[in-house]
Each structure stands twice: as C-alpha cells, then as structure tokens.
Amino acid sequence: MKQNVVVIPTFNEIENIADILYAVMKLDTPMDVLVVDDNSPDGTADKILQIANEFPDRIFLKKRFK
Predict the structure, then answer these.
(1) What's the rounded Cα separation, in Å, for the pair 18 and 59?
(2) DSSP-assigned letter for residue 8
(3) Cα 3 from Cα 1, distance rounded (Å)
(4) Angle (nearest 5°) at CA 65 between 63 and 66
C-alpha cells in the first residue's frame, strides 16, 4: 500500500498553520502530515495539536526543543 506524507517545517506559523493543515486534509489523495516545529514561541505547536485531535492518526507533530 502506498502512503503519502507531507512534511511541513514551521516557526511562528500560528496565523497560517490551520489553513495549511485543513487544505492538505481536503486533498483528493489522502495524505498524512508531519509538522516539524522549531520551538515556535507563538503557540504554533499547540494549534497543531488541537487540529491533530480532529484527524487522529493523520497529523503528527515533532517539536524541537532548544
């Protein structure tokens, strides 16, 4: 089975991340998403986790800690 993954690097993307994630989830071809957040101080990671709850097993977050 073929699996598609979109990798999205983020830093301070709180204003954009919801639109991006919802756009990927609406694609005709199913995609999983791995968001790699670079310790955004604006709450990007929290927003990602909130949206990930709507799409269990499709949106994943890897946070880099400094």
Answers:
(1) 12
(2) E
(3) 6
(4) 150
Q: 21-40 burial, b for 16+ CB within 10 Å, e for fewer?
A: beebbeeeeeebbebebeeb
Enter the tokens of residue 51.
Answer: 């949206």
- Give residue-wise pLDDT tens across range 13-64: 999 999 999 999 999 999 999 999 999 999 999 999 999 999 999 999 999 8
Q: Is 57:39 a contact under the CB 8 Å cutoff?
A: no
| CA nearest neighbour of 39 among 9, 8, 7, 11 | 11
